[in-house]
Automatic annotation (TrEMBL):
Protein family per UniProt: Belongs to the TTC4 family.
Domain Cns1/TTC4 wheel: 307-406
Protein's name in the database: Tetratricopeptide repeat protein 4
Organism of provenance: Trichostrongylus colubriformis
GO biological process: protein folding
Listed InterPro entries: Csn1/TTC4_wheel, TPR-like_helical_dom_sf, TPR_rpt
GO MF, any single term: Hsp70 protein binding
CDD domains: CTWD_Cns1-like (cd21377)
Keywords: Coiled coil, Repeat, TPR repeat
Gene3D superfamilies from the UniProt entry: Tetratricopeptide repeat domain
Length: 422
């Protein structure tokens, strides 16, 4: 027990101790930021670095004072009071320090045997102790980051690396591990920025130390950081190249959509679902993509080499429950010219060869399926699409075919080229 502890002074609660520790952290962080700003101003004015002046400035902060009583009336009086209060509670602080050390050592044992989840739990318990040793806290966060990285929790590891550097900017292992996490997560540019910031903060911290020489271990870590940065720089170049390529593809895709939508709009075709003719940037190809159970391929209306639209067509044979799929039907081609070769040889299900071009009639239905309209072998595919009331559903026009004997018994005229099939 510290003999300098005043008699009768009440012991602090955990909440009071935590509040005082937080105040010390905040004050120290603000002080370091002010020092950094001052250093930046000196660099701007080309003023040479004065180590003695830096030491004098740093000694003014309670965290670095050798005599706390000397500054009780100064700028950091509140902080000094907090330090003195914690000083008289040093027995508890020593216990916390020992507890945090034990959790760290236990975690290191589990880590050695690749029990990374157990190691993570131990480091977490050490962090919860909230001891005042900033370097120890930095090590705990850094070690937990290493365990998290082995588990695959890269984002959690990244956050722990950031906390480790906040407690101790000299923790280059944490800086390296954080950079590796960012690179593995695909944030190459963030990785480069992280490394540059870590190096600058490390250099600044070294400049403020009485013995600011870079150790051999730190040199190795700095070299490792440079190696990670080289990989990140290469990844940045690849990312930028891929972004340029993606932007070019997006422009090309938008131009294709604009051209196709204009062609469809000029032909005054009726679609379900509706297409954003005036807003090509809102166009989704899935509105026109055709996917059928009969084939694993996808089809879509497109331009052929002659600049004409070519369509997929679904051919239905209701009386026998069969279908065919036609692809790349030029809008200027006549239906008969396409179907004649197909009907010259009977399908497996057409044993009597009833479906011949001279023995069939062809129809398309209106958008509400209330009636059908007849089309002929000399009709072009494009003319079918522009029939009044005809609708293209999900990018796939449908043509219905019956044998003459079958359909003539079922047709009832309801208007000019309008029939109801009974």
């Amino acid at each position: 027990m510290d003999q300098s502890k005043p008699k009768g002074k009440p012991r602090m609660t955990e909440e009071e101790r935590a509040a005082l520790a937080k105040k010390l952290d905040d004050d120290l962080e603000q002080f370091m930021e002010e020092m950094a700003a001052k250093r930046a101003a000196e660099q701007t004015t080309k003023k040479p670095f004065d180590f003695d002046e830096w030491c004098k400035d740093i000694d003014q902060h309670p965290a670095f004072m050798k005599d706390l009583d000397a500054g009780l009336n100064g700028q950091y009086a509140d902080t000094l009071s907090a330090l003195q209060a914690l000083k008289y509670d040093e027995d508890d602080m020593e216990d916390k320090q020992l507890s945090a050390e034990r959790h760290k050592d236990e975690g290191n044992k589990h880590f050695k045997f690749k029990k990374y989840r157990w190691a993570t739990d131990c480091y977490s318990e050490g962090i919860k102790v909230q001891c005042l040793d900033r370097k120890l806290n930095s090590v705990l966060y850094g070690n937990r980051a290493a365990a998290q990285k082995h588990i695959g929790n890269l984002r959690s590891a990244m956050k722990d690396c950031a906390m480790a550097l906040k407690f101790d900017p000299r923790n280059l292992k944490a800086a390296n591990r954080g950079a590796e996490c960012l690179l593995e997560l695909g944030y190459a540019q963030h990785c480069v920025d992280w490394i540059e910031r870590a190096k600058k903060t490390f250099a600044f911290t070294k400049e403020t130390e009485e013995e600011g020489n870079v150790t051999e271990a730190e040199k190795k870590q700095l070299d490792s950081l440079e190696q990670v940065k080289e990989k990140a720089d290469e990844a940045v170049l690849i990312e930028e190249r891929n972004k340029r390529k993606a932007r070019a593809e997006e422009r090309k895709d938008l131009e294709e959509k604009r051209r196709l939508l204009k062609a469809l709009s000029d032909r005054k075709l009726n679609f379900r679902p509706r297409l954003p003719f005036s807003r090509p940037e809102l166009m989704d190809w899935s509105l026109l993509d055709v996917s059928l159970a009969q084939t694993s391929e996808r089809y879509r209306v497109s331009f052929n080499q002659d600049g004409n639209l070519q369509w997929p067509f679904l051919i239905q044979y209701p009386q026998v429950g069969q279908v065919d799929v036609l692809t790349d039907c030029d809008e200027t081609a006549q239906i008969g010219a396409v179907l004649r070769p197909m009907f010259e040889t009977p399908a497996e299900w057409d044993k009597d060869h009833e479906f011949r071009l001279d023995n069939i009639r062809m129809f398309v239905s209106d958008e509400w399926n209330e009636y059908v309209m007849e089309v002929w072998e000399w009709s072009t595919f494009g003319s079918i699409l522009t029939l009044p009331g005809f609708q293209i559903v999900q990018g796939l026009p449908v043509l219905v075919i019956y044998t003459r004997d079958e359909i003539e018994r079922k047709l009832t005229p309801v208007g000019e080229n309008k029939f109801v099939i009974n």
